[in-house]
Specification:
single chain, 208 residues, 6 helices
Length: 208
């Protein structure tokens, strides 16, 4: 019985996250943090442009609050909005920007190389941008744009790599975007840190 409750709550969180990705794509939505409190449910939305989430005089916040309460059954939702400190190091924000650029008609190679360059200039250790779909013709294919160092398997790939996904709706068809970023503060298990030399002060006893 307890397992069913945990599964139900996890499914609800995934559905809420997908809803925010769809509704707040223009705001540069990154992710959300949902916490239960004694007075209700606190939802923290992280976005590149908090103003788009809040709306004019808080109209967007009220709309989202009503939607969460009615359609998702969230108990007394309280929404707080925080800005993303480094948008170019957030995989979800970068994936959304790539999707928006493709929807505007920019060439996928230019978009991919630009995204990789911006992420690396922000100080990332590594980045991979994967664009899949009908890019130039009727036949779908996958293109990868990479730079730096990236973990692809094992525990480091699951815990240390930030992954974002987005979808671009173009005239030829749907294009999927996956972005993987290793942030500058990530410490790999096999990484060796060499400390600087520490000056040792020698105390010389004075001759008496």
């Amino acid at each position: 019985m307890i397992e069913r409750v945990f599964i139900k709550e996890s499914v609800k969180k995934v559905l809420i996250d997908e809803y925010f990705k769809k509704e707040l794509s223009r705001a540069g939505y990154s992710h959300c943090d949902i916490r239960k409190t004694p007075i209700g449910t606190k939802i923290i939305i992280y976005a590149e442009k908090p103003g788009f989430v809040i709306g004019r005089r808080g109209s967007r916040i009220r709309e989202l609050t009503e939607k969460l309460a009615k359609e998702f059954g969230v108990e007394k939702p309280q929404i707080d909005v925080k800005s993303v400190e480094s948008p170019d190091l957030d995989a979800q924000v970068v994936a959304q920007k790539v999707a928006q650029s493709l929807e505007r008609g920019l060439h996928f190679r230019r978009v991919g190389h630009t995204a990789v360059r911006r992420v690396m200039n922000a100080g990332a250790k590594g980045v991979v941008v994967i664009i899949s779909g009908k890019l130039t013709g009727e036949r779908a294919r996958t293109e990868k744009f990479m730079a730096g160092y990236m973990e692809h398997c094992g525990e480091p790939a699951e815990e240390l790599v930030d992954i974002g996904r987005a979808v671009a709706k173009t005239k030829p068809g749907i294009i999927g975007i996956t972005v993987k970023i290793m942030r500058p503060d990530v410490i790999l298990p096999d990484e060796i840190i060499i400390k600087e030399d520490v000056e040792v002060k020698h105390v010389v006893e004075e001759e008496q």
